[in-house]
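Final report, results section. Input specification for complex C-07:
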Amino acid sequence: MTATEAHIDRATIEAFLYQEARLADENEYDAWEALWTDDATYWVPADAADIDPFASVSVIFDNRNRISTRLNQLRTGKRYAQAPASRMRRLISNIEILGVTDRGDVEVGANFLLIEARARGTQLWGGRTTYHLRRDGNDFKLSYKKVVLVDLDQALPTLGFLI
Amino acid sequence: MTDLLEAMADQSRYSRLIQPDKVHGSLYTAPEIFAEELEKIWYRTWVYVGHESEVAQPNDYVRKTLGLQDVIMTRSEDGAVNLLLNRCAHRGNQVCDDVKGNSKAFRCPYHGWTYRNTGELLGYPYNQGYGGKTRTDLRMGSVPRVASYQGFVFGSFATDGPTLEEHLGAAAGELDRLARLSPEGKIELTAGWLKHRTHANWKLLAENETDGYHPQFVHGSIFSVTGSTIGPLYSDKSTAVVRDLGNGHSENDLRPEFRKFDEPMRWFGTTAERMPDYVAAMRAAHGDAAHQIMVEGGPHVMIFPNLFVAEIQVFNIQPVSVNECIQYSTAVQLKGAGEMNRRMISQSIGSVGPAGMLLADDTEMYERNQRGVEAKLPEWLDISRGLVRERTDENGFTIGAATDEVGMRGFWSHYKELMEA
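Structure output:
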């Protein structure tokens, strides 16, 4: 990879992350769902970042099928934990390109800070996300997203939105 | 407020606030009632704290809460399970910091006082300040009575009173039913806990756990997108019943519905063919009884005041304040059940906890309910559903139709008894 290619890649990667964040913030369920690959994993561990999700409970551990179920429930308008939907904005920062996975996906790490407002009150969420991005023409698709909340070992309020 | 103050002044105030068909809104909002609940319920009756499998090895420990108190559940070298209060006998500092671990002793970080995992004081630095090792009268506090049933560990701050088995009464049989789903007759709670902060009074949760009226409405969204067969169990046509098990415990008995179908594993949303190893292990362990056990499935029981078993999940409800509590939830693990355990974890992640496709919606209702009852009128919450048709079953328990509020009435009747004691 030349210096110029790396630079372009970084710009494309950042644009993808910002787009994914905006779609989640704005509850754009269809466009957000279209970002995922068919073999996707969407994971929010509980308690510790390194738990085995097959042996311990997680806040979210969705395969592609369950991502669809989660979105379909939201689309009914009667997913009361998100009806009305939260109002949100998140910032993504400290973006690092970490390498390439066995499947050839680009592994990217980034910090995030998210403000969620709803009737319960305004909630601050923060943590670090690991993304696996797969080349799709000139763009990427998301094959893996692991969100490690800074307070993952604490009692969390309802997390009904797309994190 | 005047009404409430008058009621509070009355010796039988809880009889006025809790009537056979309605309960007063202040029961969910008055800080003084919450303070009284801590003393008369949380720090008196048997309260669920943890499970023996969480401290499987000698010297294992895990931090828990009991009401507002930080408790260390330990297994001492002799195998006994202890509930120590996380407080140094010297200056009251928290002795144990780690959430779990394995240790024979705890050392307070403040002045170095050290305790055995039974609470006994082992020593303190610079003992000449006390004229030597003289303070052997001091030790960590512990919950006065600790008992377990099917591995579920309960604590009671009352030094005497009903035994755990007396308290559980008929609800003990529901925990037996849960254990029978294991080919080895044992359950374990080793999959960790989801912790869900809930801005609602704890009683709204306890009441809802066996409320068969809400699922079609609150959970209609997930039932519709997954084609779930749960919905009809809680319909007007369902043959399931809600049963007051006494002592504030209640259950949704779904067995009449599952018996109609007579299909093993339907209760788990699958078929015997898809779970061959589990089904074979159950047949080997239980013989002819296995078929019925696998048809009837797990219990759906609320054990007063804070243990809820929802077929394959266990919930521990702990209060924080009059309008806040924490729901701890985990997937049941059945000893010797192999593949089944993994599926129970996966199903639980989908259903419960802060992002659960079932429980997050229940929790939204609890929080809306808490905001609702802050309104002063009409003062009362109605719990009369099914009074017109409740009846006594062959064992003398009050039962109602699947969507009736029999469980709530049982909860409140026991609550009143404890609060007026």
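Chain A touches chain B at residues 44, 46-47, 51, 53-62, 66, 69-70, 72-73, 76-81, 119-121, 153-160 (CB under 8 Å). Strands of chain A lie at 36-45, 58-63, 87-100, 106-118, 121-136, 139-149. This concludes the modelling results for the funded period.
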